[in-house]
Amino acid sequence: MTLLERFLQYIHFMTTSDEASATCPSSSGQLDLGHYLVQELQQIGLLQVKMDANGYVYGMLPATPGDEANPAIGFIAHMDTSPDFSGENPKPQILENYDGEDVLLKGSGAVLKVSEFPELKNWKGRTLITTDGTTLLGADDKAGIAEIVTAMEMLVRANQDSVQIHHGEIWVCFTPDEEIGRGTEHFDLNLFPATFAYTVDGGDEREIASENFNAATAIFEIKGKSVHPGDAKGIMKNAALMAAEIAMALPKNETPAMTEGREGFYHLVQMEGDVSSAKLVYIVRDHDQKQFAIRCGYLQKLAEIFNSKYGGTAENPAVLIRLKHSYRNMRPVLEKHPEILERARRAILNAGLEPVDSLIRGGTDGALLSYQGLPCPNLGTGGYGFHGPFEHISVEGMETVVQIILNIVKC
C-alpha cells in the first residue's frame, strides 16, 4: 500500500471525538480505526501490538541485531479528528501536478486561496490533497499515523531485504481523543517504554515544536430570574443578556483572530442560554506561565464582579465560574533534553530541509507526556488548515516526513 492509499484509507473512518461523552474513546469510530491499525501493524511485522480497553494502540519494532543498547524511541499520533467541523464522509480532491493557484472546493463552492495559505505557491508540481469544502480532511492527525506506519513498514522491508537500517527499539502509539484534551488520560507508559518520543501532529514538515500553550477551559454559569415581560420591571434578570455583557467585558484584541506567536488569548467557543440561565465556555491560552495565571485570575475576578452586580452571593451565585486546567507548556521539560531536539534537527537537515524551531498555538499529547517523564517534542505532518474545510496536505510533504522519521531512528 502506498502512503497516499494508506492515508485515504484512514480518513474514511469517522473518528470525530465527542467532548460530551464519558467513554474512552469518546466515539466508536476511533475503536474501528484502532482495530484496523492493530491488524495493519501486525501484518507489517511489529511486535507486542495491542489495543487496550481505552482504545490506545501500541506496537514495537525490535532493535536491529547489535543495536539493542541504543535508546528506545517512540512516535505518537492521534486517531480522532476535531469536533469543530464535520468529519463525516470526506470527499478528498486530489490534484496531481498542482498548478500553484487557488483551488475550488467543489462540494461547497468555497475557494482555498493562496493569499490565505501562502505555502501553496511553493507546492506547484506536487500532488495536492484538499477537502471538497463540506468536511474537514482528517490529516490532523491521520497523516501523522500514515507517516509513522509507512516508516515502520519501510524499516521492516529494508531489513528483510538485507538493506539494513540500524536502529534501536522503536515504539509507536496511536491515541484517542487528543482533540478534546484527553489524549493522554489513559496512556500507559508501561506499554510504551521509550526513552523519549515525538508526536507527529504539526504542520510544516520542517518544524520542530518544543513549546506550546498553557491551557485551561473556563465555564461561566449564569442564573437569571424569569417573569412575564409585561411585569418584569425591577424583577427580571435576563441571563442571556448577562452572558452577553460578560462576553463584551473581555479584551476585544485578545482573541485568536487578533493574536499570533506567543500572544495569548481568550476564545469564546460556546454560548447558550435564555432568560433563566446561560452558559459561556472559553478556552484560555498563553505560552508564558505567569501571564497564563494572570488570565485565569482575571476571569475569576470578572465572575466575582458580575456576581456582585447581579445580586448573587457565595452561597447562591448569580454568576459562577469553573476553571479546568488542560496542559502546560512543555518547554521547561524539553530544555533539559536538548539532544532530543538536536536529533530531530539533524534528521530534517538530512532530508534536505532547513529545520524550523516553532511553537504550537495549541496543545499536543507531547506536552502532557513530557510532564509524565517522557520528553516529547512535536514534528510536522506537512498539513495545513486543520479543523475546517480548508485543510490540505501534499503527498510530497508526507513523504518528506516519512524520511525524517527514518532519519531520526537511524543509529
Automatic annotation (TrEMBL):
Keyword Cell inner membrane among UniProt keywords: no
Cofactor(s) of this protein: Zn(2+)
GO biological process: peptide metabolic process; proteolysis
Highest taxon above the source species: Bacteria
Domain (Peptidase M20 dimerisation) ranges: 211-309
SUPFAM superfamilies reported for this sequence: Bacterial exopeptidase dimerisation domain, Zn-dependent exopeptidases
Membership in a protein family: Belongs to the peptidase M20B family.
Cofactor note: Binds 2 Zn(2+) ions per subunit.
Keyword annotations: Aminopeptidase, Hydrolase, Metal-binding, Metalloprotease, Protease, Zinc
GO MF term list: metallopeptidase activity; tripeptide aminopeptidase activity; zinc ion binding
Binding-site list for Zn(2+) 2: D140, E179, H387
Active site: D80, E178 (proton acceptor)
Higher taxonomy: Bacteria, Pseudomonadati, Fibrobacterota, Fibrobacteria, Fibrobacterales
EC number of this enzyme: 3.4.11.4
Enzyme class: hydrolase
Protein name: Peptidase T
Keyword Kinase: no
InterPro entries xref list: ArgE/DapE_CS, Bact_exopeptidase_dim_dom, Peptidase_M20, Peptidase_M20_dimer, Peptidase_M20B
Pfam families for the chain: M20_dimer, Peptidase_M20
Sequence positions that bind Zn(2+) 1: H78, D140, D201
Source species: Fibrobacter intestinalis
PROSITE patterns, per database record: ARGE_DAPE_CPG2_1 (PS00758)
